Amino acid sequence: MASNDFSISDLEQYLESSLVLIKVNAIIAVLREHITEESIICKLNYISQNIQNEPKVIGEWNTGHFAIAVLNLLNTKDTRELYNNNIKKLDVYAQQGVERLSEQISIMLEIDG
Asked: Positive or negative, the Cα torsion across 17, 57, 63, 4?
């Protein structure tokens, strides 16, 4: 269980939410708590693979962009592999957007990497 008193099961449900703020906060919580549970990483991968169908969060970014950025920032062997597989499917503009988003999330959470 994470320090925010939510379980992995709760987090899985939040990552499936149709409410964009619930979903994006769950994505950020995965990174903030450095959760690398396989089921959670699979959910992030699913969101990132379906980037075209994900709801907008702010500006050009949707929850798929956030999921790809978090896969990168978790920085494990498995998440980096998923990140690399998913980022190469995006056009250059979207790839640059994910890079900018990763930087913003890092600053927000004070993460190196």
From this structure: negative
